[in-house]
Amino acid sequence: MKEILESIILNIVDDKSAVTITEKVNGEDVRYDVKVANNDMGRVIGKQGRVAKAIRTLMRSLGAKEKKRITIEFID
After folding, report:
1. Which residues lie below 8 Å from residue 26, measured CB to CB, with a gap of 6+?
2. Contact between residue 44 and residue 9 where contact means Cβ atoms under 8 Å apart
3. Torsion of CA 63, 35, 14, 70, to 10 degrees
4. Taking each helix axis from N to C terminus, what angle separates 50-65 and 2-12, rounded to the nearest 10 degrees?
5. Quick check: 21 and 70 in contact, CB under 8 A?
6. Cα(70)–Cα(60) distance, rounded to whole angstroms?
């Protein structure tokens, strides 16, 4: 699932080299910390957080198939 999230993020941002995604697994809970360049943070979050919400919704539905609880944090 990390690969899917990485693919989504890389297609949104301009500075692909600044993207880092950290995965932390704790039983059923999976947390992804996403860091992007400051210039790309607005693109990833989107207007009123719509893009970030869409990414979270998509990843949660993928996690539900595998009985995992997905959390995504966008870090400056």
Report:
1. none
2. yes
3. 10
4. 160
5. no
6. 5
Fill in the DSSP letter of residue 37: -
Dig out the tokens for 36 from the structure: 């992007």
Q: Is the pTM of the predicted complex or chain greater than 0.70?
A: yes
Q: What pLDDT score was predicted for residue 47?
A: 94
Say what the pLDDT of residue 51 is. Answer: 96
Pick the closest to residue 30 from 60, 68, 74 (CA basis): 68
Low-confidence residues of the chain, pLDDT below 70? none
Instruction: Say whether 36 sits in a helix, a strand or coil.
Output: coil
Q: Across-strand partners of 70?
A: 30
The whole-chain average pLDDT of the chain stands at 94
